[in-house]
């Protein structure tokens, strides 16, 4: 066979190959275009689909002797002023929060979360055992423990004030004195006082 024959065969096969590749690429392009349009339109949402309708009050009909319609509306949560928070007590010569005190402080946290405009002031005290400087430092540590508990449980620091005031000003009676340790648990305390926002 001659050289020109092979050139002819090559050119024919090359033209068929180009034509078949062009058809395949056109089909592939159309398929990709349709696929992307399908994905695009299936993921689109109109503003009507996104916005949830407001809840409408429901009406119920009283089937008693009187015919009257009662409209039930959803009640908005009532935000009341916090008037009192729990006071906790400490063990002798300690500023760590006991399990019982943690439960009481957790109730305070819930009240403060439910009333985000209410701030809190922590006043911490010691009993009469020990020197004035020591008791002042201990009361500051007790106040700091309560503040840290509030902070760790989601109360913002700007809502909390604290004071360590040393010895509690009201003395214990003989009946209130501790039986197993010196001092008086009633005096070893941290009071949480709610502070209402200015009006």
Structure characterization notes:
This protein is an alpha+beta fold. Among the domains are: 3-36; 88-170 and 178-195, 2-Layer Sandwich (60s Ribosomal Protein L30, Chain: A), CATH 3.30.1330. It is built from 4 helices and 6 strands, in the order ααβββαβαββ. It has helices at 3-43, 47-50, 99-114, 132-152, and strands spanning 58-61, 69-72, 88-89, 119-126, 160-167, 189-195. The strands form 2 sheets. It has a 4-stranded mixed beta sheet. The longest helix has 41 residues, at 3-43. Residues 46-76 have low confidence and may be disordered.
How would you sum up this structure in a few lines?
The protein is α+β, with helices and mostly antiparallel strands and 199 residues long. It is built from 4 helices and 6 strands; from the N terminus they run ααβββαβαββ.
Q: What fraction of residues sit in β-strands?
A: 15-25%
Number of helices: 4
CATH fold assignment of one domain: 60s Ribosomal Protein L30, Chain: A
Q: Which class do the helix and strand fractions yield?
A: alpha+beta
Q: Which range best describes the helical content: under 10%, 10-25%, 25-40%, 40-55%, 55-70% or over 70%?
A: 40-55%
- Which consecutive residue ranges, at least 5 long each, have pLDDT under 50? 46-76
**Biggest sheet, open or closed, and with what strands and sense?**
4 strands, mixed
Task: Let me know the number of strands.
Answer: 6
- Rg is 39 Å
CATH class (first level) name of one domain? Alpha Beta
Keywords:
single chain, alpha+beta, 60s Ribosomal Protein L30, Chain: A, four-stranded mixed β-sheet, 4 helices, rod-shaped
